[in-house]
Amino acid sequence: MSAEGSGRIITFYSYKGGTGRTMALANAAWILASAGRRVLVIDWDLEAPGLHRYFHPFLTDKALVSTKGVIDMVFEYQRTVLALENAESLRALPDAWYDENIDVFRYITELDWDGRRQNGFGELHLLAAGQQTVDYGTRINTFNWRQLFDKGGGYKFIEAIKRQVTREYDYIFVDSRTGVSDTSGLCTVQMPDALVVCFTLNSQSIEGASEVALGVREDRERASQTADETSGIPAPQARPFRVYPVPARIEKAEKQKLDLARDAARTRFDTFVSWLEPAERERYWGSIEIFYEPYYAYEEVLATVADKPGAIASLLASIERLVGYITDEEIRMPAIRESLRQELLARYERQRSEPDDPTARATAVLQRFTTEDAEIARAILLRVAEPGAGGSVLRRTVATADVPEHGILNRLVDEGVLVRKLGEEQVEYISVADERLLAWPTLRGWVREYEDALKVRPVLEDLATRWERQDRNPEFLLRGGVQAAATRAFHEPRLFSPRVETFIRASEREENTRAKSQKWLILKRWAVAVVVLAVIAYASFDYLHQVWIDYRILKTVPTKINPHDGLKYVWIESGEFQMGCSYDSSRDCFSSRVTIPNGYWIGQTEVANAAYRHYLSARGQTVKPAEENQLPVRGVTWLDAVDYCAWVGGRLPSEAEWEYAARGGVRGARFVTGDRLDERQVTLGRAPRPVASHSPNGFGLFDVTGNVAEWTRDPSFPFFGRPRTISPTTPRTRVLVRGGSYASVSRELELHFATESSFDAQDSTIGFRCVLDGTDFEKVAYSYRINPFSEMYSGYLQQNPYAQALYKSWWDAVYLRALDVEQRRKQK
Questions:
Q1: Interior/surface letters 528-556, b for 16+ CB within 10 angstroms, e for the rest
Q2: Residues 97-111: pLDDT tens digits?
Q3: How far is CA 247 from CA 251, 287, 428, 456, 737, in A?
Q4: Considering the entire predicted model, what is its pTM?
Q5: What is the DSSP letter of 825?
Q6: C-alpha span between 586 and 90 (Å, rounded)
Q7: Is the pLDDT at 506 greater than 70, yes or no?
Q8: Rounded-to-integer distance, Cα 472 and Cα 441, Å
Q9: Cα–Cα distance between 652 and 90 in angstroms, integer?
Q10: Helix ranges restricted to H, 251-337
């Protein structure tokens, strides 16, 4: 008995083939299942699998083309092991790991047949040898069982399988490989609680089988106390390990030779039944023999179906006696209705006399059904037929899963009336096996009788499918008169799929509920509508409020369009403001009161690609492919920006002018969005966005921070007396940049923050906007109007001669460059 479960594992073994071993196993399993036991049969004869043939009438996949089994399970386990980072640690893994990663039940198939439940049948399941594909033989012959046990944790793998099956089944019968091999040793030594050894009465079979049985017993006796993982021998069980020798295929002819062979067999095998008293031992040898019956030599048919229960000399009686010994119980095959036995027998036997005419064959099949089963068969046939024009019948394909009566369905398939086909996504379908069946008068009569229901069936199928695809949303159920008409058509539920029946019933319930609660539903809808509107209003308040603020700002600020580049400029009145930071964030944070003596026009947006391409074309320069028109131009040098602003009649803003305009008239603001940075109102990320993508500031300017940083006209000099770390030559090459860019961190987006860059740098994060002097916008001349003393530096430079000299030398160089640009423009 298993240490982990109450089930018993019994292996059926034979040294040579042709002993009837598999037949004995299949019949013994059926007898126990008929007695209400839960039985699992395992086909471990991997080289010559055949156990499934004894159960083929009860298998949907009769040839095991898509049914996985032992070898598939072993390969899957091997893949799991190979995926481990350290396969050498398998021995140290606990049993729980194996139980979690091995699921034998995925590979087990249930055997089912009509009347199983009504006859007190227990459970009979099959673990097949493996999926019978074209590469099955290759997989069997190339698998290294020795490596599995030496390095792959094979012992614990088998023990995990044993734990799982012994918890779920009363008896587990294993059909073992013949001879002496790795798999036969696994089945006879490690796995079983008992061993049934089948042999014929020839010398080779007797001697070979007895030697193997002795070897198994000696191996298990060596494991006297604990399990030896390296040898693959389990620890001793509470119940003693027994070997049941079974002489099989006994021929009654040649009585003298038969008696001699019997004596030889008893001499060899008597040691294995020493646990019996002498009298009982004689009874064992006299009753355990399985006689040869030619009837069973032609096809795999169960004696439990072919033999009538109660016959003492039958093959069934021999198997019943064997079952009694291996279970220590007197279990007999229960009597079943003769008509049912004949029905099961007919499913085994070859139907060579079946008529070739499909309509005659279908008629004969229906006649063998009981009245109740014939009604079910009629409904199934109507499921695969639909009315056509002029009283014709058309073929229809139905998913097998939509036909709940699988027992009758399997019989119709076995008899050749219906055929299974594998469709898309591996879904199995059924339809009539022969087009000639569509002209069968009986089927045509049924179609005429249920014509109204069959015509509405496709519509109901589509509606039910749509309802399920919408997660069974009640809105997709039938209502009103349509629901009532569908219910009238649904007077024969078997003609429809379970999905349609569920859909119709749900529609009925929903319609009843709707009729009772219509008034409350209207009130609830009004209440929901009010709540939804309130939620929408609340959620959109901030957005609408911001839109209103933007509208008021843009409506009140004075703007004009520059005729040179077509961009809109905003008028900034003169004034004074506190430049620099307005809070004590660090010791390097300074501020000063700065006066803007004159008003000026400043670009409402940063210069965009469209305007810059227009400038390049007007200047006679090659227009290179650029980014989207409304994206800010970037990667231009300071000198290019100076030249562009001169072309439109202006200049770059001073640092003071830039910050004055960027603050938008808000005092002490840290960011353009206030004391806190609202990243929703600033372009940040991996790339800039089109200009004017966010709300304007108080002066109507867009994107003063984020998007791209902006050139100013001022050099990188000490700010308000705070010395910067720059060399004496730096002022000749470095220019102040303000505003931060899309790639900036939050500190760089503060309105007082400034950085610097070389005047000839082409930085993909830097763009610019222009400033125009004077109030008469249209008459601004094409000139640079460069003021060598910016507002913010005027007082400081006058008090610092050294700084003034550096500043002027820098402007001299830049101014000469600017004059040269202007001179070349005039020459053109």
A1: eeeeeeeeeeeeeeeeeeeeeeeeebbee
A2: 888 888 999 999 988
A3: 11, 10, 44, 64, 102
A4: 0.47
A5: H
A6: 60
A7: yes
A8: 40
A9: 74
A10: 255-269, 278-287, 303-306, 315-327
